[in-house]
Amino acid sequence: MLKKLAAQTAIYGISSIIARFLNYLLPPYLTRIMTTGEYGVVTDLYVLIPFILLLLTMGMETGYFHFAGKAGTSEEKRLIFQTTWGIVILVSLLFFGFTLLFFQPLSVVMDYAGTPSYLLLMGSIITVDAVTALPFAKLREENKASAYVKIRVVTILVNLFFVSFFIL
Q1: Alpha-carbon distance 5 to 28, whole Å?
Q2: What DSSP string describes 25-87?
Q3: How far from chain centre, in Å, is Cα 165?
Q4: Membrane-spanning residues where (predicted)?
């Protein structure tokens, strides 16, 4: 049991280390191709992302782990997953709709009038992250470490592609 826990911890940790390492490499690249003002906006938005994600996911991953661990049958686990994920999807889509409707005026209020598309991109990224939080938790709960890491690595590569695509 302890050996399995250590192996899974290492596997889950690898994807986090890769993500953080790549995020560590991005600032030197971005500061070379963006103006100081543009990069300042990006930095401000990066500060907001974890707080908004916290609100959108509402701790449902923890709730899912708690109740899925107590579930007696696979049907109960499925219902718990569907309920928690459905709520997160609904709240995330409402947030994205709000972002679509108000990203222009919000950019003016936040003093980012020159870069309103950054708010739209941030809203898109946050929505995708929030909606995928529960499926990732489900993979962990089901002890599917290799699938979790593969999907995380693909997600990181897609993120890098889109950063390059939208910035260049």
Answers
A1: 36
A2: HHHHHHHHHS-HHHHHHHHHHHHHHHHHHHHHHTTHHHHHHHHHHH-SSHHHHHHHHHHHHHH
A3: 19
A4: 9-26, 46-67, 79-103, 118-137, 149-167
pTM above 0.90, yes or no: no
CB atoms near residue 11 (< 10 Å): 13
| pLDDT of amino acid 168 | 64
Residue 127 amino acid letter: T
Of 72, 58, 73, 75, residue with least CA distance to 137: 58
Residue range 18-22: mean pLDDT, rounded? 83
Total residue count of the chain as it appears in this document: 168
Residue 104 pLDDT > 80: yes
| Eight-state DSSP code of residue 114 | T
